[in-house]
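Hi V.,

Quick status before I head out on leave. The structure for the redesign project is tokenized and pasted below; the design run finished overnight.
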């Protein structure tokens, strides 16, 4: 795999199912209801959310899914600007692939 810019197939090859990621994101976001105000979600949440929306758009492309995936990718870029200017969704795929490799 090209570590620099993996394809979606490479980046998400070992990813959990879309349904399990939706459930994880919902459980994680729900914890905000029981935490003090202004508790920030960590980078992992935003990375996995951006990857989830990217995967949904790849399987069911549409204007709404594309817009959501792009917005989530931009949010991740705002959190940790990369050293190079790149396509936001390519950045999500790169970071997701690296994160999975780091956790295995």
């Amino acid at each position: 795999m090209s570590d620099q810019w993996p394809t979606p197939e490479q980046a998400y090859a070992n990813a959990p199912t879309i349904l399990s990621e939706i459930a994880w994101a919902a459980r994680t976001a729900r914890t905000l209801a029981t935490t003090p105000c202004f508790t920030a979600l960590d980078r992992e949440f935003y990375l996995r959310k951006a990857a989830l929306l990217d995967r949904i758009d790849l399987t069911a492309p549409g204007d709404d899914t594309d817009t959501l995936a792009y917005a989530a990718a931009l949010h991740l870029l705002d959190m940790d600007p990369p050293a190079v200017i790149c396509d936001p969704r390519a950045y999500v795929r790169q970071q997701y692939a690296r994160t999975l490799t780091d956790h295995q």
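Above is the designed sequence. The chain has one domain: 8-103.

G. will cover questions while I'm gone.

Best,
W.
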